[in-house]
Amino acid sequence: MSAGGVAAALWRLLGLYLLACGILANLALATLAWMIVDNGPAALRARATSAVELVENRARSIDAAITQRIAARRAAALKVATSPVLATTEVGAAVEIADEPNRGRVLEVGPGRTYATPAVAARAARDGDVVDIIPGEYSGESVRWTADHLLIRGHGGMARIDGRGVRLVQDKAIWLVQGDDVRIEHVAFSGARSSDRNGAGIRAEGQRLLIVGCSFDDNETGLLSNSVHGAEIEVLHSSFSRNGHTDGQAHQIYIGRIARFVLRGSYLSASRVGSAVKSRALESLVIANRIVDGADGRSNYTLDFSEGGRAVVLGNELEQGPYSGNRHVIAFAPEHSRGPRDALLVIHNTLVSDRANGSFVWNRSAEPAVLYNNLFVGGRRVLEGRGRLAGNVLVTNAWFARWGGTSAGSGNRRGEGDAVADRRRLDYALPADSPARDAGAPLDPASLSVLAELREYREPLRAVPRRIVGAPDAGAHEYVAAP
Question: How far is CA 27 from CA 35, 40, 44, in A?
Fold first, then answer.
């Protein structure tokens, strides 16, 4: 090659090199600009100090907290199961069903009793019977309950039903409940697996089911209900942990198209990919619960009201972890809307998002959601979709945080400092200097009716009346001064 040809080739190589450098420089500048705009200087500094290290530290601290709370919850399960005070003050009129003097026979279940296992008792049960299961572990069987007006209970403690390796009844559940007006209390379900990856601790197919003081751990689905016209399901003071499946089609609680679903005073943690609560009910009441991902949780939505309806989210602690598969904490009508019958009330909750781009409420309905007196911690956007906001407090490091909705600014405020006592340890009580103190707004007449149900979650597995003195605090708890 001639000297001129070599020189020309070198110039072309130099040109390509400079072009590549320019492209890389522009990409670096664009990435830097995106990081600044999307997350702000505080998040940029955090990334510079190693985002991976921060996530790992957060995961370790949350893991320790969630492990302690799960241990405390399990230790308290027996106390809940045997506490007559809790039964009368928390469950209320529902206890009268259990204590009704005109019930049928009492079927005793357990070693040395008339019926050795629950399955044997289920075949003998008639309408109105009481099935008393002696505390202990029962394995190797699944059960179909067909009689109506049954009371099935762990008598004097938790009856633990182990579904590992069990062929589920109709390939559905450890317990398939087909009778009407059934109450189940103080029974633990674990290990349900089915061929469709949706094996449940309990599958509900009857008209009315009341679950009190039960636990559901390590099932593909904790509680699953069929779509039954006019049916009602109520879950009180119960716990759900590590239920779900990696395919995302199973959930801790999955409620079909029924008339009414109530979840109160319960603790849900560490969802496996699916949502913590997925409900298609016409009316869903989620009151004074603690629902958290923790270090291992990979929930899709925390609360998913798939087809709208009337949904009341009142007095809950809701936390979405950094590994969640979806950035929305609450989804309303993401699949289908019921039009004018839609109504979403989100009042006096503490919602925590550990996702940098987290969004707290996603309203796909044309009807405006009502978001009053909530405390939002982390995330970047409060509401996507239509809604009215008042008395809310947002504490976040996101630079371009947004309220959303149609009436942002009505008593809403951006807070600074520590909003909750210890976010890393999942302690959502208010510290003395929390910006949520006295930040709530008076509720409008359309929302006043829900105040009769206002409760706070307390360990273990309780929902206690919330007392408001003076201006209400934003969030799930009123501030309590140290003694």
Answer: 12, 19, 17
Which amino acid type is present at position 167?
R
Phi, psi of 297 (to 5 degrees): -70, 140
Q: Give phi and psi for 236, each to the nearest 5.
A: -125, 135
User: CB of 398 within 8 A of CB of 379?
Assistant: yes
d(CA 232, CA 228): 9
For the question of whether the overall pTM of this predicted structure is more than 0.90, the answer is: no
Question: What is the rounded end-to-end Cα distance, in angstroms, of the chain?
Answer: 91
pLDDT band at 134 (very low <50, low <70, confident <90, very high): very high
Rounded to an integer, what distance in angstroms lies between the CA atom of residue 329 and that of residue 375? 13
Under 8 Å between Cβ of 55 and 355: no
Output the DSSP codes for 47-109. HHTTHHHHHHHHHHHHHHHHHHHHHHHHHHHHHHHT-HHHHHHHSGGGHHHHH-TT---EEEE
What is the widest separation between alpha-carbon atoms in the chain?
Answer: 111
Question: Percentage of the chain with pLDDT > 90?
Answer: 64
Alpha carbons 159 and 58: distance in angstroms, whole number:
36
Q: Measure the CA–CA gap between 374 and 232, rounded to whole angstroms.
A: 28
Contact 66, 295 (CB under 8 A): yes
Say if strands 455-458 and 462-465 run parallel, antiparallel, or are unpaired: antiparallel
Cα(254)–Cα(275) distance, integer angstroms: 8
Q: Tell me which amino acid residue 193 is.
A: R
- Report pLDDT digits (tens) over 72-116: 544 444 444 333 323 333 433 333 334 454 578 999 999 999 999
Q: Where are any strands of DSSP class E within 321-449? A: 328-332, 343-347, 350-353, 359-363, 369-372, 375-378, 381-384, 387-390, 393-395, 413-414
Beta-carbon contacts of residue 374 (< 8 Å; ≥ 6 apart): 346, 347, 348, 349, 350, 351, 360, 391, 392, 393, 474, 475
- Alpha-carbon span 300 to 275, nearest angstrom: 5
Q: In what order do the strands lie in the sheet with 200-204?
A: 143-145, 173-177, 200-204, 221-225, 253-255, 277-279, 303-305, 328-332, 359-363, 381-384
What is the CA angle 308-314-291, rounded to 5? 85
